[in-house]
Amino acid sequence: MRTNDRARARSWIGAIVAATGIALVSAGCADGGAPGTPTATADRQSQVAERGESVMPFDLDRTTHHFVKTDGGGVQTVVADNPRDAGQVDLVREHLRQEADSFRRGDFSDPANIHGGQMPGLAVLRDSAGKITIGYETTADGARITYTASDPAIVTALHAWFDAQVGDHGVHATPGAPSSATPAAGSTATSR
Q: Does the entry feature the keyword Signal, yes or no (predicted)?
Protein backbone atom coordinates (compact mmCIF):
# COMPACT_ATOMS: atom_id res chain seq x y z
CA MET A 1 0.00 0.00 0.00
CA ARG A 2 1.37 3.43 -0.93
CA THR A 3 1.71 6.24 1.59
CA ASN A 4 -1.18 8.23 0.08
CA ASP A 5 -3.42 5.15 0.18
CA ARG A 6 -2.58 4.55 3.86
CA ALA A 7 -3.35 8.15 4.74
CA ARG A 8 -6.65 7.96 2.89
CA ALA A 9 -7.54 4.66 4.63
CA ARG A 10 -6.74 6.16 8.06
CA SER A 11 -8.87 9.16 7.21
CA TRP A 12 -11.81 6.94 6.21
CA ILE A 13 -11.43 4.80 9.33
CA GLY A 14 -11.37 7.92 11.50
CA ALA A 15 -14.50 9.25 9.80
CA ILE A 16 -16.29 5.92 10.26
CA VAL A 17 -15.33 5.74 13.95
CA ALA A 18 -16.49 9.33 14.52
CA ALA A 19 -19.79 8.75 12.69
CA THR A 20 -20.40 5.55 14.64
CA GLY A 21 -19.74 7.34 17.92
CA ILE A 22 -22.13 10.15 17.04
CA ALA A 23 -24.80 7.64 15.97
CA LEU A 24 -24.46 5.67 19.20
CA VAL A 25 -24.67 8.77 21.38
CA SER A 26 -27.67 10.03 19.43
CA ALA A 27 -29.43 6.68 19.65
CA GLY A 28 -28.86 6.51 23.39
CA CYS A 29 -30.46 9.89 23.92
CA ALA A 30 -33.22 9.60 21.31
CA ASP A 31 -35.29 7.15 23.35
CA GLY A 32 -35.89 9.72 26.07
CA GLY A 33 -33.71 7.91 28.59
CA ALA A 34 -31.35 9.81 30.81
CA PRO A 35 -27.82 10.00 29.46
CA GLY A 36 -25.80 7.20 31.01
CA THR A 37 -28.90 5.17 31.89
CA PRO A 38 -28.58 1.80 30.16
CA THR A 39 -31.77 0.41 28.64
CA ALA A 40 -32.30 -3.31 29.05
CA THR A 41 -33.21 -5.48 26.11
CA ALA A 42 -36.90 -6.05 25.41
CA ASP A 43 -36.45 -9.66 26.56
CA ARG A 44 -34.98 -8.58 29.90
CA GLN A 45 -37.71 -5.96 30.39
CA SER A 46 -40.33 -8.65 29.75
CA GLN A 47 -38.69 -10.97 32.31
CA VAL A 48 -38.52 -8.14 34.86
CA ALA A 49 -42.20 -7.30 34.30
CA GLU A 50 -43.14 -10.96 34.73
CA ARG A 51 -41.15 -11.29 37.98
CA GLY A 52 -42.55 -7.95 39.13
CA GLU A 53 -46.08 -9.34 38.99
CA SER A 54 -45.21 -11.71 41.84
CA VAL A 55 -43.78 -8.89 44.00
CA MET A 56 -45.70 -5.73 43.15
CA PRO A 57 -49.48 -5.95 43.70
CA PHE A 58 -50.31 -3.11 41.31
CA ASP A 59 -50.57 -3.36 37.53
CA LEU A 60 -47.39 -2.18 35.76
CA ASP A 61 -49.45 -1.31 32.69
CA ARG A 62 -51.61 1.05 34.77
CA THR A 63 -48.82 2.68 36.79
CA THR A 64 -45.47 4.40 36.25
CA HIS A 65 -42.29 4.41 38.34
CA HIS A 66 -40.40 7.73 38.48
CA PHE A 67 -36.79 7.95 39.69
CA VAL A 68 -35.14 11.29 40.48
CA LYS A 69 -31.50 11.29 41.56
CA THR A 70 -30.52 14.02 44.02
CA ASP A 71 -27.17 15.14 45.45
CA GLY A 72 -27.96 13.29 48.68
CA GLY A 73 -29.77 10.23 47.30
CA GLY A 74 -33.01 10.21 45.38
CA VAL A 75 -36.77 10.03 45.19
CA GLN A 76 -38.73 7.04 43.90
CA THR A 77 -42.37 7.76 43.10
CA VAL A 78 -44.94 5.32 41.77
CA VAL A 79 -48.21 6.72 40.46
CA ALA A 80 -51.37 5.36 38.93
CA ASP A 81 -51.57 6.50 35.31
CA ASN A 82 -55.21 7.38 36.01
CA PRO A 83 -55.29 9.28 39.32
CA ARG A 84 -58.96 8.31 39.77
CA ASP A 85 -58.05 4.61 39.74
CA ALA A 86 -58.43 4.26 43.51
CA GLY A 87 -57.63 0.54 43.45
CA GLN A 88 -54.23 1.06 41.82
CA VAL A 89 -53.49 4.11 44.03
CA ASP A 90 -54.20 2.06 47.17
CA LEU A 91 -52.08 -0.87 45.96
CA VAL A 92 -49.15 1.46 45.15
CA ARG A 93 -49.37 3.14 48.57
CA GLU A 94 -49.48 -0.12 50.51
CA HIS A 95 -46.61 -1.66 48.53
CA LEU A 96 -44.32 1.38 48.83
CA ARG A 97 -45.08 1.69 52.57
CA GLN A 98 -44.05 -1.94 53.06
CA GLU A 99 -40.97 -1.49 50.85
CA ALA A 100 -39.84 1.59 52.81
CA ASP A 101 -40.14 -0.39 56.06
CA SER A 102 -38.11 -3.26 54.57
CA PHE A 103 -35.46 -0.96 53.08
CA ARG A 104 -34.94 0.72 56.47
CA ARG A 105 -33.94 -2.73 57.79
CA GLY A 106 -31.58 -3.31 54.86
CA ASP A 107 -34.01 -5.80 53.31
CA PHE A 108 -33.90 -5.29 49.55
CA SER A 109 -35.12 -8.80 48.72
CA ASP A 110 -38.08 -7.60 46.63
CA PRO A 111 -35.93 -5.63 44.15
CA ALA A 112 -33.47 -8.54 44.10
CA ASN A 113 -36.30 -10.96 43.27
CA ILE A 114 -37.40 -8.72 40.40
CA HIS A 115 -34.06 -7.49 39.02
CA GLY A 116 -31.63 -10.15 40.23
CA GLY A 117 -29.21 -10.35 43.12
CA GLN A 118 -26.39 -8.72 41.14
CA MET A 119 -28.42 -5.54 40.51
CA PRO A 120 -26.13 -2.47 40.47
CA GLY A 121 -25.94 -0.77 43.87
CA LEU A 122 -27.84 -3.50 45.68
CA ALA A 123 -24.97 -4.95 47.74
CA VAL A 124 -24.04 -1.52 49.13
CA LEU A 125 -27.68 -0.72 49.93
CA ARG A 126 -28.14 -4.02 51.78
CA ASP A 127 -25.10 -3.22 53.92
CA SER A 128 -26.28 0.34 54.64
CA ALA A 129 -29.18 -0.26 57.03
CA GLY A 130 -29.33 2.68 59.42
CA LYS A 131 -27.09 4.80 57.18
CA ILE A 132 -29.87 5.84 54.79
CA THR A 133 -32.80 7.98 55.88
CA ILE A 134 -35.79 6.52 54.11
CA GLY A 135 -39.00 8.52 54.05
CA TYR A 136 -42.42 7.43 52.84
CA GLU A 137 -45.18 9.76 51.73
CA THR A 138 -48.46 9.34 49.93
CA THR A 139 -49.19 11.45 46.86
CA ALA A 140 -52.53 12.25 45.23
CA ASP A 141 -52.06 9.38 42.77
CA GLY A 142 -49.68 6.99 44.55
CA ALA A 143 -46.72 7.27 46.90
CA ARG A 144 -43.04 8.12 47.08
CA ILE A 145 -39.98 6.94 48.94
CA THR A 146 -37.19 9.43 49.60
CA TYR A 147 -33.64 8.18 50.17
CA THR A 148 -31.04 10.41 51.83
CA ALA A 149 -27.46 9.50 52.75
CA SER A 150 -24.35 11.47 53.65
CA ASP A 151 -21.90 8.80 52.48
CA PRO A 152 -20.98 9.41 48.82
CA ALA A 153 -20.57 5.65 48.22
CA ILE A 154 -24.16 5.06 49.31
CA VAL A 155 -25.42 7.93 47.13
CA THR A 156 -23.54 6.44 44.17
CA ALA A 157 -25.11 3.03 44.91
CA LEU A 158 -28.58 4.60 45.07
CA HIS A 159 -28.01 6.29 41.71
CA ALA A 160 -26.81 3.02 40.13
CA TRP A 161 -29.82 1.23 41.62
CA PHE A 162 -32.18 3.87 40.19
CA ASP A 163 -30.54 3.63 36.74
CA ALA A 164 -30.90 -0.16 36.77
CA GLN A 165 -34.59 0.10 37.60
CA VAL A 166 -35.24 2.68 34.88
CA GLY A 167 -33.46 0.48 32.34
CA ASP A 168 -35.14 -2.73 33.46
CA HIS A 169 -38.69 -1.36 33.68
CA GLY A 170 -38.60 0.25 30.23
CA VAL A 171 -41.89 1.99 29.45
CA HIS A 172 -43.05 1.44 33.03
CA ALA A 173 -40.39 3.78 34.45
CA THR A 174 -38.85 7.15 33.77
CA PRO A 175 -35.91 9.16 35.12
CA GLY A 176 -37.86 12.20 36.26
CA ALA A 177 -40.52 13.45 38.60
CA PRO A 178 -44.18 12.85 37.81
CA SER A 179 -46.16 15.94 36.89
CA SER A 180 -48.44 15.21 39.84
CA ALA A 181 -45.70 15.11 42.50
CA THR A 182 -47.78 16.85 45.15
CA PRO A 183 -48.53 15.14 48.46
CA ALA A 184 -52.04 13.82 48.98
CA ALA A 185 -54.41 15.76 51.20
CA GLY A 186 -53.87 14.41 54.70
CA SER A 187 -50.73 12.65 53.44
CA THR A 188 -48.77 10.53 55.87
CA ALA A 189 -45.01 10.94 55.88
CA THR A 190 -42.66 8.72 57.85
CA SER A 191 -38.87 8.58 58.03
CA ARG A 192 -36.10 6.39 59.29
A: yes
